[in-house]
Design a protein that fits this description.
This protein is an alpha+beta fold and 423 residues long. It contains 12 helices and 11 strands. It folds into 4 domains: 50 residues; 56 residues; 176 residues, Ribonuclease H-like superfamily/Ribonuclease H (Nucleotidyltransferase, domain 5), CATH 3.30.420.10; 76 residues, no CATH class. The strands form 3 sheets. It has a 5-stranded mixed sheet with strand order 3-2-1-4-5, sandwiched between helices. It has a 4-stranded antiparallel sheet with strand order 6-9-10-11. The protein has a two-stranded antiparallel ribbon with strand order 7-8. The N and C termini lie far apart (69 Å).
Length: 423
């Protein structure tokens, strides 16, 4: 480009070429090749040199004033940067860096102000709102290791202060398909207990089908570890001797469980978490959201954005389109869910389980609560399948003996002492 000549040649070098051309020593094409300019620019330079050889220069001269930033835009940029700094300084919030793209989009959507990303970054550096990327970041494997949807689902939870206006931290639980990177389930909950995770299984398995395997960490909800979980289990039991309630549900569905041995091993689910965390916190702060119900509405919108509109940085595809393409190419190993015999409904599968012995009075004891039920076999062990209803506060207790459903009772959940299962 013509404006770049002054960066590669001095005035004296260009003057020499112009004079030699005018003297007939070299041809126009030679000068154009050396300066890498077109014919129009060449003759403009020749004209300038002829008119005033002594004052001829190729130095770039601005003909207009540099563009100044609207004071209102500058004020809003600094306002958003200061707000982000409060998030970064708050160790309970999952924000560790500035998101200049989010600020750019926020200015456009909220204030109808168009501003370039470099401008925002420049202001951030000028006013101390810039954090350089560490050169020693731990790298985790983001490679897609599966070839089919449903081959591996990653399930996890994350505990943070999701809004500066909330009075407490919340848990975010998600399930993600490894191949498509599509988020199949996401929900903010008040407490990280077994029941919300069982409900997540129910939602995913009934909607999408049964995967080949589930990938989780070694939290006590997913795995019994000797020494750590001795308060809930017998002291002599070894790791994996006792099966947590969540894992029993997965086993009933004939799905394999794989435990991650380190946080770095869960890199694929951590990346969507990072994106969700960043956006949820910023939007909740922007919209003054203080309740988990409204925060979940934000979450659902962001999951939709992630699944249906964003191109994933690793796969180079929108997760939903990648998922649909896999279905069309018959790269799908999800199995349709059926209630396995002898059980009757999904409440017999997605539930809590416990065994109790019937006493001489045809009753059982649960949390010091004596429960009588029909067809109780004296001195026999019966299996209880318990399905809590969080809206009514009642649990449907289904009594099973030798593959037979004996009775169904509805009992207040708080009387059953399900806290043993982290319910």
């Amino acid at each position: 480009m013509a404006e770049q000549i002054h960066k590669k040649f001095t005035d004296e070098q260009v003057k020499d070429l112009m004079q030699r051309y005018l003297n007939g020593e070299i041809k126009r094409e030679h000068v154009q090749t050396v300066l890498k300019i077109g014919k129009t620019r060449f003759f403009a330079l020749v004209k300038d040199y002829r008119n005033n050889p002594d004052k001829f220069t190729v130095a770039y001269q601005r003909t207009k004033h540099t563009r100044t930033l609207n004071p209102t835009i500058e004020k809003n940029i600094l306002k958003e940067l200061k707000t982000t700094k409060t998030f970064i300084d708050n160790k309970d919030m999952p924000i560790w860096s500035y998101n200049y793209s989010f600020i750019k989009n926020d200015l456009k959507n909220r204030y109808r102000q168009e501003v370039s990303l470099p401008t925002i970054i420049k202001r951030a550096k000028q006013h101390g709102f810039y954090i350089a990327r560490s050169k020693n970041l731990k790298i985790h494997d983001r490679e897609v290791i599966t070839n089919h949807v449903g081959e591996l689902l990653q399930h996890d939870s994350s505990f943070h202060l999701w809004s500066p206006y909330a009075k407490q931290k919340w848990w975010l639980i998600t399930s993600l398909d490894d191949f498509s990177r599509m988020i199949l389930y996401a929900m903010l909950i008040l407490r990280d207990l077994a029941w919300p995770h069982i409900l997540a299984l129910q939602t995913v398995f009934l909607k999408y089908g049964l995967p080949l395997s589930m990938y989780v960490d070694s939290d006590s909800i997913f795995r019994f570890v000797r020494g750590r979980d001795k308060l809930h289990y017998k002291h002599h039991q070894l790791t994996d001797d006792s099966i947590p309630q969540w894992k029993q549900v997965v086993h009933d569905c004939q799905v394999k469980v794989i435990h991650a041995l380190s946080p770095q091993a869960k890199g694929k689910v951590e990346r969507p978490y990072g994106w969700l965390q960043d956006h949820i916190v910023r939007i909740c702060a922007r919209d003054n959201i203080a309740t988990i119900a409204k925060a979940n509405q934000v979450l659902f919108r962001e999951v939709f954005e992630y699944n249906y509109k964003r191109v994933h940085s690793t796969t180079g595809e929108i997760p939903y389109l990648r998922y649909q393409r896999a279905l069309k190419q018959k790269k799908n190993v999800f199995r349709k869910f059926f209630v396995p015999p002898p059980y009757k409904t999904t409440k017999d599968i997605f539930c809590f389980r416990m065994d109790r012995t019937v006493d001489a009075y045809r009753s059982i004891s649960v949390n010091n609560l004596q429960i009588k039920f029909n067809n109780a076999p004296i001195r026999e062990t019966v299996n209880l399948r318990i399905y809590p209803d969080q809206n009514s506060g009642l649990s449907e207790v289904r009594f099973w003996f030798k593959d037979q459903l004996l009775d169904v009772r509805f009992i207040k959940t708080r009387l059953l002492g399900l806290s043993t299962f982290k319910v």
